[in-house]
Amino acid sequence: QVQLVESGGGLVQAGGSLRLSCAASGRTFEIYPAGWFRQAPGKEREFVAALSWRSDIRYYADSVKGRFTISRDNAKNEVYLQMNSLKPEDTAVYYCAVRSIADWGPQVKNDRAYQYWGQGTQVTVSS
């Protein structure tokens, strides 16, 4: 089992930045893909970003490309999401997730591909 705890959310003005962190404990996760998803009120959970275990391949949703950066520190068992140039439409609960299969491919953009989830952290961007 892997336990994930997100932090770093909060209230920020449009154009501002936030850095989300996700700390993993339990089973080591360094060989598994990690991702960030978000869910806005009244909407389905959507893919934000994913990162391979070697940090050599990244996927981003078109809506965040060029503004968000996903990274990880396997030695610390942590995953990060640096969010810059935030917009009101980025307001959502953000979840980190870890896949329990050490593979890679387009499936990592689907939330069903992930077996471990954090509890979420709220990000609110005011206009």
Regions with pLDDT < 50 over 5+ consecutive residues? none
Number of helices: 0
Helix content: under 10%
The overall pLDDT, averaged over residues, is 94
Profile the largest sheet. Answer: 7 strands, mixed
Q: Overall 3D geometry?
A: globular
Structural class: mainly beta
Residue fraction in strands? over 45%
Order of helices and strands: EEEEEEEEEEE
Q: Give the N-terminus to C-terminus distance in angstroms.
A: 40 Å
- The beta-strand count equals 11
Using only CA atoms, what is the Rg?
A: 13 Å
How does this model look, in words?
With 127 residues, the protein is an all-beta fold. 0% of the residues lie in helices and 48% in strands. It has strands spanning 2-7, 10-13, 18-26, 34-39, 46-51, 58-60, 68-73, 78-83, 92-98, 116-117, 121-126. Strands 2, 4, 5, 6, 9, 10 and 11 form a 7-stranded mixed β-sheet that branches. The protein has a 4-stranded antiparallel β-sheet with strand order 1-3-8-7, with no helix packed on it. The chain is globular. The termini are far apart.
Keyphrases for this structure?
mainly beta, single chain, seven-stranded mixed beta sheet
Outline the secondary-structure elements.
Layout lengths: L1 E6 L2 E4 L4 E9 L7 E6 L6 E6 L6 E3 L7 E6 L4 E6 L8 E7 L17 E2 L3 E6 L1
